[in-house]
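so my prof wants the structure for this chain in the tokens format not the other one, which i didnt know existed until like an hour ago. anyway here's the sequence
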Amino acid sequence: EFMDKQGTQKTFFHIFNHLHQNGKQIIMTCDRAPGSLEGMEERLLTRFQWGLSAEIEMPDFELRKAILKSKIYKDGLEISEEVIDYIAANVTDSVRNLEGVLVSLLAHATLTDEDIDLALAEKVVGKVVAATPNVISVEKIRDMVCDYFALPLDAVMSKTRKREIATARQVAMYLSKQYTKSSLSVIGKLIGGRDHATVLHACSVVNDLMDTDKNFRMSVKELEQRLKG
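here's what i got, hopefully its the right format
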């Protein structure tokens, strides 16, 4: 850690300059943006901001499925789509755990001469990670809202501002903020490619409508019950 450690920061400053002047690529990781760091020398912060800052996010459901399918193909396994969906929905904390579940599935199937089916997947996932059978994701909320309002997904994902579509989009953003741990930027990206400011505005609009429109409030409450059920 560099914060408030002047000696360490001074040494790193010279190392950074040496590497940069010699055309070396420098990759650094941190749990916050350079501008949010405290206890750092200004000259270091300036250098941290020279390069490209990129947020590394947890893989979403579709990416987890893609990772699983790639690993399954490379290992020559045969696993049904149903099992892949179950693993992707319940193993959400790391790619390492996804791979661990596949290794455990293969071991169990080999030792017990069982097929790799949903029952075996449920047993293995329950031992490897804390399974959450009713995982609430932005994608799940988005699709559920589309189904509730009888709207096609591509309409909600589009740029149209038609009232009924915009309202459904805003409800999906509101529920995603309430029931997932996803950042505002991720929610916006997954619901129509919007930014975090749009998500904040959507939440404000939904709150106002719930205060003034009884029928709208009942619709949102019904959607919440479906999520919890």
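also thought this was worth mentioning. The radius of gyration is 23 Å.
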